Amino acid sequence: MASVTSLTASVHQRLATALSATLPEADADPLLRRSDRADFQANGILALAKKAKANPRELATQVVDKVVTGGVIKDIEVSGPGFLNITVTDRAITENLAARAADPEGRLGVPYAETPGTTVIDYAQPNVAKEMHVGHLRSAVIGDSVVQLLEFTGETVVRRHHIGDWGTQFGMLIQYLDEHPHELDHKAGQVTGEEAMSNLDRLYKAARRKFDADEEFKTRARRRVVDLQAGDPHTLAMWQKFVDESKIYFYSVFEKLDMEIRDPDIVGESGYNDMLAETCRLLEESGVAVRSEGALCVFFDDIKGPDGNPVPLIVQKSDGGYGYAATDLSAIRDRVFNHKANALLYVVDARQSLHFKMVFETARRAGWLNDGVKAIQLAFGTVLGKDGKPFKTREGETVRLVDLLDEAIERASAVVREKAQDLSEGEITERGTQVGIGAVKYADLSTSASRDYKFDLDQMVSLNGDTSVYLQYAYARIQSILRKAGDVRPAAHPELALSEAERALGLHMDQFAETVAEAAAEYAPHKLAGYLYQLASFYTSFYDKCPVLKAETPEQVENRLFLCDVTARTLHQGMALLGIRTPERL
């Protein structure tokens, strides 16, 4: 793909050259930003003038004299105490968009990263034998979008779904079923998916109640864990049934979320079981971990409890059992040494931040993480209800994810049905699903991952405001215009003057590549979501002020159709990177 230099980069380069010529020894950075008074404003002159002990306005005037105009820059003027206001040419805007539209790979001129590496991303971590709830939503949605962004920019991505499929809960559940076989649903074995998972979830809760109340049962359940770890055939066979049934359920939920989950990517806690003993041995032999009251622990000078005593990371319990730390550290070894990862990304609830801080520091002390391998927790906040409290049902129970998604689809379908003019009932159902799931995803992704957000379906499916529905309707509106154009095709006409609304739309589209690169580098889908909302807003203003099919000349019709077409393609590609569909008709 031929690289398309953005207008921002072109202007930056010309200013930097002029600044260097004016102050050869200065670290000349124009510090470009958008301005209400011009297309760009350079505000680095003030800092440079201070260093050079020069008058900033005089320095700015000297720089202007050295800037090469023409082609890209139409006008440059000094304003205020020494700012530079820069206006680009209409021709440059249209030609740059034409170059992006002509990209043979259909990437709209978005380049691949200069030095792509390998990232292992750990996201969407449901638990076997438990129903997925609203708390699983953010890890799945944020992680999937980050995967799309990284892969689009050329990164090799290894997906990992670290499901909870090992440990005490399975000894507890298997032992309970052995002792209470009559509690199995009479249809067990004949149903799969949501119904089967509901049965398993019900049995798990019953087993948990007995485990908490009956010490003798607790002892038997823990012995069953030992049987599981030792590979007892009966215990292992029951465990495998739970895992297989749970996977069918997981796949059905992720399919409803319009996410691709591949079986090889599901590597749960059990996948590292054979590495745990060696991980502990390596940590103990290296002195990174020490024995304390029989347990293998790692201590940290800056992590202490309320009593002032150190709080350790327990890698192996005093009874010989392994905790989450052993599994997570083994996973790091596997991802670094077997998958040759340069980056390990964990999309995990912010409430687990202390655990991952200790795990990462332990891995660094052991030499498994170093300057060539970074580990990052992309910590996300909590999903809140309209009342600002953690999202619960009226009965105070955690909201099932499936119920939440079904309600979103139902609400969205009602919105689509109300607006639909020529859609069949089947099309309304399909579009309602795309709009509903898109609404849920966008509400999450338009918020910085670290922040909490309120789950408000009424707002999510609104046609107004910062919602995916607003973006989807903008895309569908463009498709309608392109269909009505008939044989008239979009075509760029760089010779035409652009209106203010056309310029604003074109300049914003030219930032798409830079926005994608920034969102990928910072693991920040919300930056792309914000860009797309602004794009839809600029398009709405253009649509209101600039007749397309009734423009004054045939060339202007073609050029405005061209602007519509590139806007639609940008919306489509950007929404795809968020994991959201863009229906052709709504």
TrEMBL record:
The lineage of its organism: Bacteria, Bacillati, Actinomycetota, Actinomycetes, Kitasatosporales. It is an enzyme of class 6 (ligase). One of its GO terms (cellular component) is cytoplasm. It catalyses: tRNA(Arg) + L-arginine + ATP = L-arginyl-tRNA(Arg) + AMP + diphosphate. InterPro entries: aa-tRNA-synth_I_CS (IPR001412), Arg-tRNA-ligase (IPR001278), Arg-tRNA-synth_N (IPR005148), Arg-tRNA-synth_N_sf (IPR036695), ArgRS_core (IPR035684), DALR_anticod-bd (IPR008909), Rossmann-like_a/b/a_fold (IPR014729), tRNAsynth_Ia_anticodon-bd (IPR009080). GO terms for biological process: arginyl-tRNA aminoacylation. PROSITE patterns: AA_TRNA_LIGASE_I. Keywords: Aminoacyl-tRNA synthetase, ATP-binding, Cytoplasm, Ligase, Nucleotide-binding, Protein biosynthesis. Gene3D superfamilies: Arginyl tRNA synthetase N-terminal domain (3.30.1360.70), HUPs (3.40.50.620), Isoleucyl-tRNA Synthetase, Domain 1 (1.10.730.10). Residues 471-586 form the DALR anticodon binding domain. GO terms for molecular function: arginine-tRNA ligase activity; ATP binding. Monomer. HAMAP family: Arg_tRNA_synth. It is found in: Cytoplasm. Its EC number is 6.1.1.19. It holds the Pfam family tRNA-synt_1d. A motif ('HIGH' region) lies at residues 126-136. This is Arginine--tRNA ligase. PANTHER family: ARGININE--TRNA LIGASE, CYTOPLASMIC, ARGINYL-TRNA SYNTHETASE.
